[in-house]
Specification:
By secondary structure, the chain is an alpha+beta fold. The protein contains 3 helices and 6 strands. It has a 6-stranded antiparallel sheet with strand order 1-2-6-5-4-3, covered by helices on one side. The chain is globular, with a radius of gyration of 21 Å.
């Protein structure tokens, strides 16, 4: 009888372990918008580096921005592949409304011939990725605070 009880305990343990691993894997694969990962920070780029390409829209002037950072950022291409490349990343100071920010960039990028490659949204924000001629642009918002509700906008573009 002890052997059967021990076998049931082992089977229960193995099944429980499999459920925990499956749950952890599902959680890791769940895609919510995140701030693009900047893996290397450098001193603040000059104004010339924040808009060195004619196809990159100027920073939206309806909000206040932090200083740009340069480093590696992960973008999504038209094949839904993750592309890690050197980029410029800028995040805003907290804002209360972001509709005009999103409208400005989506309109400007379409005018300049960029193709939307990815859109993600969730309870913590939303993000959009674009591609044009092997270059990438990402924009989005993140919840900065729930009380009062504020957001941070971000843009990133490959060099």
């Amino acid at each position: 009888m002890t052997k059967n009880g021990f076998s049931v305990l082992i089977i229960f343990f193995v099944i429980s372990l499999a459920i925990v691993i499956a749950g952890a894997t599902a959680l890791a694969l769940y895609k919510t918008p995140e701030t693009p990962k900047v893996t290397q920070k450098t001193p603040t780029p000059t104004t010339a580096t924040t808009n060195s390409d004619q196809d990159i829209p100027l920073l939206y002037n309806g909000i206040d921005w932090n200083q740009p950072e340069e480093g590696e950022v992960v973008f999504t291409n038209k094949n839904n592949d993750s592309i890690k490349t050197n980029a410029i990343y800028v995040q805003s100071l907290p804002i209360k409304n972001y509709d005009k920010f999103i409208d400005y960039y989506t309109n400007e990028l379409v005018k300049k011939g960029w193709q939307e490659t990815s859109y993600a949204s969730g309870p913590n924000g939303e993000s959009y990725d674009y591609e044009k001629g092997g270059k990438y642009f990402s924009l989005g918002i993140l919840v900065a605070s729930s009380e009062p509700l504020t957001y941070k906008a971000f843009v990133a573009y490959s060099k």
